[in-house]
Amino acid sequence: MLVLSCSNLRKTYIVDTILDGISFTVENGDKIGVIGLNGSGKTTLFNILSGEVEQDSGEIYIQKDIKIGYLKQHTKIESNKTIFDECLEVLTPLLNMEKELGGLEEKISLESQKGETNKLKSLMDEYAHLSEKFLALNGYGYKSEIKGVLKGLGFSEDDFDKEVNILSGGQKSRLSLAKLLLEKPDILLLDEPTNHLDIDAIGWLEKFLKEYKGAALIISHDRYFLDNVVNRIFHIENLKMKIYNANYTEFMARRKKDLEIYKKHFEDQQREIKRQEEIIARFKSYGGEKYHRLAQSRQKLLDKMKVLTKPTDTMKAKIRFEPKIKSGRDVLKVEKLGKSFGDLKLLEDINFNIYRGEKVGLIGANGIGKTTLFKIVLNQ
Ligand SMILES: Nc1ncnc2c1ncn2[C@@H]1O[C@H](COP(=O)(O)OP(=O)(O)O)[C@@H](O)[C@H]1O
Ligand SMILES: [Mg+2]
Q1: Three-state DSSP class for 68?
Q2: Which among 10, 12, 13 is the best mutation to test ligand 1's pocket, defined by most ligand atoms within 8 Å of the CB?
Q3: Which among 14, 77, 175, 367 counts the fewest CB atoms within 10 Å?
Q4: 253 and 233 in contact (C-beta within 8 Å)?
């Protein structure tokens, strides 16, 4: 089912055109990676789709009764509630339903004392209808659902009672994401959702999104994450958007081919332009009315040609860091390292060697002691 479509979107900020001729459709259940260099207009597109920013021209069609949920790149959330209560708020309609069901139960038990009245029958009908809806919305499991999402995104049970205002920026972002996922909008717009997640939470989110019934558009620079989640790629480049019905790896392969073909077109065209220019120059050098006219008509054709822009290999920025001094083979040796803060034992019996040229990934859950280890190694 089609849930969203755009045709010919265009957006300009003062004089800078950011997006032009953007058209696409989104089907229910689509998982789409939106990619492009920084500043290419990805966030702007999301702002337009969410209705926060208005496009200059072009149409957006959103299927009736479809809810869009938007996780912004930088979230601000302020609240003196606890993390758990903040999540509960998302489920207010569900909580109201629960109350309503409780009220109906009371009425039913009162009415049933009078025997099989018509009123009892209609109360029972109402109850059946409402509890069916409640069940469909996972009304009996919402508490464990909240817990599951919070834990999945890296909160521990101890965190649940913490006040939102005292959280770090990263924690607030994770909470915003949790609330959005609990809301279950029909279309999720996620702007760099993995920025504040550790590996475990990224894995959890991958699974969650893969199983998500609605559609999701996800801006991300994380190719592994994209490969695990998306079935389509929207690539924004030079104001335009190209659509690939593929995961990230396939997209890269196809793009490489596209670039090669484009490069060949460009080179062919350049050669042709040069050839024409030479002919024109030759005609002109012959002199005379006839050759002048021939040169002119060829020049006109040349002027009308739609000249391709030079392909830029944006994927190939190469930066090298050369060390000032070349070290020996042993670079870092750590033996029996331990660290506690008061009663909290953070690191114990850590041993490792790093040799010249090695590139090592340091992984672990948030708060496990990775930064502390760096600080110790740096004598800070
Ligand atoms: N409110 C604004 N006013 C003027 N220029 C803006 C505004 N928002 C974004 N831009 C410009 O639009 C371009 C695209 O920005 P953005 O959509 O944030 O890119 P991305 O998310 O792909 O990194 C950038 O050049 C940015 O400076
Ligand atoms: Mg952005």
Answers
A1: strand
A2: 13
A3: 14
A4: no
